[in-house]
Amino acid sequence: MPQFKYVGEKFFAEKVSIEKITSKNKTPFYLYSENQIKENFLNFKRSFKQVNPIICFAAKANSNLSILRLLGKLGAGADVVSGGELLKAIKAGINPNKIVFSGVGKTEEEILLAIKHKILLINIESESEAKLIDKIALKQKKIINVGFRLNPNVDAKTHKKISTGKAENKFGISIKEFHQIFKNKERFNNLKIQALSVHIGSQILSDLPYKKTLGVLLKIINELNIKLKFIDLGGGFGINYSDHEQLINFNNYAKLVLDFKKKTKCDIIFEPGRFLVGNSGILVSKVQYIKNGTNKKFIILDAGMNDFMRPALYDAQHSIIPVSRSKNKNKGTIEFVGPICETTCKFGKFKNYQKLNEGDFVAIANAGAYGSSLSSNYNTKPLISELIVNNKKIKIIRKKQDLFKLINS
Length: 409
Prior knowledge:
- The protein is α/β, with parallel strands linked by helices.
- The protein folds into 2 domains: 4-32 and 278-407, Lyase, Ornithine Decarboxylase, Chain A, domain 1; 34-276, Alanine racemase (TIM Barrel, Alpha-Beta Barrel).
- It contains 12 helices and 21 strands.
- The strands form 3 sheets. Strands 4, 14, 15, 16, 17, 18, 19, 20 and 21 form a 9-stranded mixed β-sheet that branches.
- The longest helix has 17 residues, at 208-224.
- The chain is elongated.
């Protein structure tokens, strides 16, 4: 998180101290760095300069309108997985010709939305979906540009809950099934097959699974002699949540993709999400209580698993950073937990952690992806506010949900 660092003993977001922000904004809240998002996007684009891909931000990672607008202005499209995400991307000003609609369970209403807005591609994930889109297209008297998402049966060596490219996963069409569909493509007179798509998982830190996937795609294209306009290579690029996690070597992967592009003569689509926004955000929370347990001390925060689900859902490990640094250490083990009435409402266990007092503030690091977008009203808790910083300027990009509107809705 280059845009988040200590200046002296105070933790800063760009050029503003978090302590100053907490004096004017009630915790918990998400805080993003605009310059970090810009830096991430431009670095990704630069890495694949020769490939010149269409970069479709995976909106599920963070669907805040201001962040979508920011990425759209930088030239990003959007990868969406619901009608809501599609409408948000359109509202944010993202060009429909840079929007790809993925997902295994698209409804008739969502498909109609995609057709209405003339998006770049609908990525089909089953034969039944192909039949439905063809039927809708016939009623609409239109030819629809589609891709077929393949399940390449490639193990991305990531957490089992975010693996999407193995045969046991629900995503995509098997290679065998796609062969049958393609050989009988005349059944789908209202579909124009423009792309093959893959997405093998998330938080991937090696280029080896991607290399295997490119090999699978090339074999299929050659065997069936398919003429395509696009190859959608998905996303899944990881970030370093801890110091021992090494990022994927984009230089190596870019060479592989460039060679693949030359062989297939197709334009490339990427769908990065976490990589563009993950390290751009933190969750700022206050120490509400400190409670002595039998074998450890509980640091009870005012943020809960409803605000930040990743640790409970994925056993994710995030650094937790004191907003004011000191050399005083706790003896023994402390565990950061939240107020939600679930044992899984916890954020991390640490030894020799800095001593904290009730009323102090901490920042949960690398919370820009799958933080706010996974949040909920569990325990009838309002959705928290989101802020963005640009140098010294702070802007609220989502107000805290009103409790009384929530309980009356």
